[in-house]
Amino acid sequence: MTLRTCLVTMLLAVSPLPLYGQAPRNGEHDFDFEIGNWKTHISRLEHPLSGSTKWIEYNGTSVVRTLWNGRANTVELEVDGPDGRHIQGLSLRLYNPRSGQWSLNYVSSASGTFGVPTVGRFEHGQGEFYDQEAFDGRLILVRNIWKNMTPDSCRFEQSFSDDGGKTWELNWVATDTRISNAPPPPSNAAPHDFDFEIGSWTVRNSELLNPLTDSARWIHFDGTSVARKLWNGRGVLLELGSSPPSGHTDGLIVRTWNPQARQWNLSFAGSRGGMLTPPAIGGFRDGRGEFYDMEQLDDGRTVLARSVLSNITPKSYRLEQAYSADGGKTWQVIWISEHARVGG
User: Fold this and answer.
1) At 334, phi and psi to the nearest 5?
2) Which of 201, 228, 234, 297 is within CB 3.0–4.6 Å of 339 for a Cys-Cys bond?
3) pLDDT for res 8
4) Which residues is 307 bridged to in the sheet?
5) Cα–Cα distance between 207 and 324 in angstroms, integer?
6) SS3 69
């Protein structure tokens, strides 16, 4: 049995999909116990899966906020350890109503890029989540557990397994105690590229049907967008709503800053899937933002995708998306969103 097969087996065992004809359990409120401000104490095994028994202690704070009408929440972590060691992290947790599961996505301030999502659910008062990650050049299994939840405290444990889940080594323990006030914000090293977008907008969308074909048929429909800062400006989160002819849809865009590359990473999640897409990456120059990624069309082709933010004023801006099937030589515009600030 391969590691990937083992992972799938464990996920099904921990978080079974509903039987045919049964509705999945409603887990939208699984993390309600954690919303608020916390003092956190972390114990981290310095060298996991090496036989090491040396632990490093950290103390700090975390802030958990709900968003997207309860279908998502964020965790902003700020802790200090010995010898000036410092950890800043952001978790974005997305709920999938079809499976009744959550995907947990983590990014550190050093990388600005979300890693592999950890997937699972709560059962019998305990949450268990699993994923597969690269560690020291090999693939391992990772398990996250929430337990001992009370209104004012909870415990989080992370463990690694390099034998397909037969044995697990505990390497991270966080014990949280609720506090009444939000901690002071950390220093902000991110640029202010998206400050223009913070607030509420009405949106006029135009979508090209059947892109990269001979189609010239466009549909037009209205939408909304609400943008807010998170992680003291190192992240920006947008909640999207639109009403195309096929019916109302919701979406979420999260943007995180990579200080090493000095670029932004943009990922999207739809309300039905509860998973982040691979990021589009780019930045701003001369008042124009350009971001690129690879995307798969409905016919199976993988193409280059470009998103451009332009015509930026305090009261309006334009988002334009385009596809290229020839490596960027030519582009076909497939989506246009004209934004107007609410009350502007």
Assistant:
1) -125, -10
2) 201
3) 34
4) 291, 321
5) 16
6) helix
| Closest to 106 in 3D by CA, of 82, 141, 127, 76 | 76
Average pLDDT over all residues of the chain:
91
Identify the residue whose tokens are 């798969």: 296
Q: What are 71's two structure tokens?
A: 């279908």
Percent share of the chain, pLDDT over 90 = 82
Q: What is the mean pLDDT of residues 247-258?
A: 94
Q: Determine the residue type at 267.
A: S
Contact assessment for residue 218 and residue 206, using Cβ atoms and an 8 Å cutoff: yes
Radius of gyration of the chain (CA): 21
Which residue in 243, 254, 301, 247 sits closest to 278, CA to CA? Answer: 254
Token representation of residue 24: 């999945």
Short-list 25, 96, 14, 74, CA closest to 275: 96
C-alpha 93 chain-centroid distance: 6
Query: What is the mean predicted confidence (pLDDT) over 93-115?
Result: 94
Contact criterion met (CB below 8 Å) for 334 and 207: yes
Contact present, 132 and 7 (Cβ < 8 Å): yes
Return d(Cα 60, Cα 78) in angstroms, integer.
6
Lookup result for tokens 């009370």: 150
pLDDT at 183: 84
Mean pLDDT across the stretch 232-241?
94
Q: Which residues contact 241 (CB under 8 A, 6 or more apart)?
A: 223, 224, 225, 248, 249, 250, 251
Residue 10's H or E segment, with its range, is helix 3-14
Cα 163 to the chain's mean position, in Å?
Answer: 28
**Which amino acid is it at 343?**
G
